[in-house]
Amino acid sequence: MRRLIFIGILLVAASFSVNAQLIGFRVAVNSGMLISEFGTSDVPHPDALLVSPPTSSEKFTPQLSAGLEGEILFQVTEKTYFGVELDYSHLKGFNDDPPVFNYFLTPYYQYYQDEFFITPLEYNTRLFNLAVNYKYFFMPDKTFTPFVKLTGVVAFVRTDLMYRELPDPDLEWNILYSRGTKNSEQDSWPAFHIGGGIGFDYEINDRLIFEVDGTATVLNSGIIDGVPNFTYEQEEGVDLLRYNRRLSLTAQVSAGFVYLLEIGGGRRGSGGRVDPKLPFYRNKN
């Protein structure tokens, strides 16, 4: 984690080292959700099927939640921009009719408690992201400017899976799975995700821009919904549960403001010339 933060600081410092350029600082709020998991589905264990309600579903219903993000932007060409972003995303969801997941039949579950109640569940997941973004603007000389976006992200996943309500008043522990939080001794799950999105800029004045974007990413982690994935296999007559690595598709919408700050001595006095190739030239002319 420290190494990634150090790399981010170097990238920011490098952007400031360029003479006479405008740097964009974006601050925004976001809201995200887990859409689905990719990969080979878990094969249910016969014991899990036996005790699962016939109407049950593995799908969780996403809940709205808020996060924060900050980004430093600088222009590569007239229409393309490069950004380094620090992002906090909060994902939540619930399942009022869950099955008995294979995970509850593994020895890993016994670390928390010895009994599982078939009752509504919820997950609470936080992602701490370091992202590199590429944005292409279709009409850079307009007040309203749509763009497309590509992103690559290193994420640190923290999650809790728990009962929505304690199913038994004598139950002292409602956490069913945890990683990277105060309820677990394990560190955050490091993962990588890539994706893209669309958005627009609206120029308020020469210095301030309102920006909205929506992004979808595929994340190399299967615990976004708080449930580790295990699949059933039978080998030489022995029932086995093997870990099943899966990918997660997430979506996020953000809205915020970009503030432009001139760095260096690009202007010679108040009437000095600004190079059209410098960042955010379109917002100053």
List keywords for this structure.
single chain; 285 residues; mainly beta; eight-stranded antiparallel β-barrel; two-stranded antiparallel sheet; elongated; disordered C terminus
Runs with pLDDT <50, length 5+? 7-20, 265-285
Indicate the structural class: mainly beta
Number of helices: 2
| General shape | elongated
Strand content: over 45%
The largest sheet, given as strand count, sense and whether it forms a barrel, is: 8 strands, antiparallel, barrel
Topology:
Layout: H1 2-16, E1 21-38, H2 46-51, E2 61-63, E3 67-75, E4 80-95, E5 121-137, E6 144-163, E7 175-179, E8 189-203, E9 208-219, E10 230-235, E11 238-243, E12 247-263
Antiparallel strand pairs: 1-3, 1-12, 2-4, 3-4, 4-5, 5-6, 6-7, 6-8, 8-9, 9-12, 10-11
Put the structure in a nutshell.
Helices cover 7% and strands 51% of the residues. The chain has 285 residues and is mainly beta.
Please describe what this structure looks like.
- By secondary structure, this protein is mainly beta.
- Helix content is 7%, strand content 51%.
- The chain contains two helices and twelve strands, in the order αβαβββββββββββ.
- The protein has helices spanning 2-16, 46-51; strands spanning 21-38, 61-63, 67-75, 80-95, 121-137, 144-163, 175-179, 189-203, 208-219, 230-235, 238-243, 247-263.
- The strands form two sheets. An eight-stranded antiparallel beta barrel has the order 1-3-4-5-6-8-9-12. It has a two-stranded antiparallel sheet with strand order 10-11.
- β3 and β4 (80-95) form a beta hairpin.
- The protein is elongated and about 65 Å long.
